[in-house]
Design a protein that fits this description.
The chain is mostly helical and 196 residues long. The chain contains eight helices and no strands.
Length: 196
């Protein structure tokens, strides 16, 4: 008698979640393998490059999925739903940080005092660009920064982003255009061929 094994790699995300609600734990492993890295990068960018917080958030989101897989609506696109949850987690964290900042001694809790640029052999321009990029992207309005992260860091489509931020695709495109043009203008000294 031949045992037929299910090929999880070929299943759609939504089918994996349905399978998970029926108790198939290997479906969870496949979902985790597909999205843990993307979410880690997304949370790193949104949570001030705080690796520990990003890892905690990745753990939290997957713990939520394994505890309550039925909370996912199988009529929705899983990836869009997942990044909507991730985005809401970030918004809640921003609110918590704002409350803490208003009640703390005024020290900014978002940045560590540790110097991560200990490798003196790095190219100076790369370090300068990264620092300037962080400054400029953080100076964007939240709505522009958010769509930029979702598109270029998380790799989501315009349609998926529109669903996550609850805006039209045209609005998302407009916000992306603004963010990209703003960043290109502010960072043009690093690439003099950009003309806006």
């Amino acid at each position: 008698m031949r045992i037929i094994r299910k090929s999880y790699k070929n299943l759609k995300d939504e089918d994996l979640l349905i399978s998970l609600t029926k108790g198939d734990k290997k479906s969870f492993d496949e979902i985790y393998n597909r999205y843990a890295g993307q979410l880690q990068g997304f949370f790193m960018r949104k949570m001030w490059n705080d690796r520990e917080k990003a890892e905690d958030f990745v753990h939290d989101i997957f713990a939520k999925i394994i505890r309550k897989p039925e909370s996912f609506d199988p009529t929705r696109n899983f990836k869009t739903w997942l990044f909507s949850v991730a985005n809401n987690m970030c918004k809640n964290e921003y609110k918590k940080q704002e409350v803490r900042k208003n009640t703390s001694s005024g020290l900014d809790n978002h940045y560590s005092l540790k110097d991560d640029n200990s490798d003196v052999f790095r190219q100076v321009q790369d370090v300068e660009f990264k620092e300037r990029f962080e400054v400029e992207i953080n100076s964007l309005k939240e709505k522009h920064k958010n769509v930029f992260h979702l598109k270029y860091i998380a790799g989501l489509s315009i349609k998926e982003i529109a669903e996550i931020v609850n805006a039209s695709e045209g609005t998302v495109k407009s916000r992306l255009f603004y963010a990209t043009k703003y960043l290109a203008e502010k960072l043009k000294e690093f690439n003099p061929t950009i003309n806006y």
